[in-house]
Design brief:
155 residues, alpha+beta, His-Me finger endonuclease fold, two-stranded antiparallel ribbon, 14% strand
């Protein structure tokens, strides 16, 4: 147990942030007290946080794009950039359907993650036109096969 220097309550070590410079490797204040202090400081000094954040974002535009992409992959698909890169390598950097490597074939500079909307399972990486095509057919295999027959039969 450790006693918080702010609220004076004895709490388990898991209730304190880690701190390399601390005697016991933990912050002196518990997580709720630490958060309350920083929130109050931010309210009292908004220009410090706003300016620092804006400056960092302007100085690191590529990193901001990467962080946004990584956050989106984690939130929507449950994977990180490293997993995306493994999928891309396994597909030799190509769309799993048409084999395109042309980044202009996609709306973005990256192939899109294709997943089953029912199970959430990732099937592969697709260029934008192929991904949109599957989506327009509601991922219905019978409709896709009928469309393929139609194209074969009607040249």
């Amino acid at each position: 147990m450790k006693t918080c220097t702010k609220c004076g309550e004895a709490k388990p070590p898991s209730e304190f942030h880690k701190r390399k410079g601390g005697k016991d490797g933990l912050e002196a204040q518990c997580k709720p007290c630490h958060r309350a202090y920083h929130n109050q400081y931010k309210r009292e000094h908004p220009e410090i946080y706003r300016n620092a954040t804006e400056r960092w974002r302007k100085e690191h535009p590529e990193r901001m794009k990467e962080l946004g992409r990584s956050s989106n992959y984690r939130r929507v698909y449950g994977v990180d950039i490293a997993e995306y890169e493994r999928l891309l390598e396994a597909q030799d950097g190509r769309c799993a359907i048409c084999g395109s490597t042309d980044p202009r074939a996609s709306r973005t500079r990256f192939l899109q993650i294709d997943h089953d909307h029912v199970t959430g399972k990732i099937r592969g990486l697709l260029c934008s036109p192929c991904n949109l095509g599957i989506g327009k057919f509601d991922e219905d295999l019978a409709r896709l096969e009928a469309a393929a027959r139609y194209l074969r039969d009607n040249g």
